[in-house]
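Input structure tokens:
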């Protein structure tokens, strides 16, 4: 089943909201988990832990994951997880 861009964005927002709701109030466990997963995937699949930086810099003007908004971080996460294995 193909989804259009608007439905995809709405789904990402729901996923983020649900993940944050499951966290303890004020906790950043969701963001930390996403950042760790991005770094690990980049290191495993490309050999460069900061492989994502070119993508985030080009798209969002930020090379550091801490500078991204939640939707931007989620978009980066999905992009990195789509990197094919070597």
């Amino acid at each position: 089943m193909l989804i259009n861009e608007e439905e995809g964005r709405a789904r990402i927002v729901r996923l983020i909201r649900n993940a944050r709701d499951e966290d303890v109030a004020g906790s950043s466990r969701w963001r930390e988990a996403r950042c760790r997963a991005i770094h690990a995937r980049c290191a495993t699949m490309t050999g460069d832990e900061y492989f994502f930086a070119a993508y985030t810099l080009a798209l969002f003007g930020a090379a550091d994951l801490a500078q991204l908004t939640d939707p931007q971080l989620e978009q980066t996460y999905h992009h990195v997880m789509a990197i094919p294995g070597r």
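The mean pLDDT is 83. The two ends are 28 Å apart (CA to CA).
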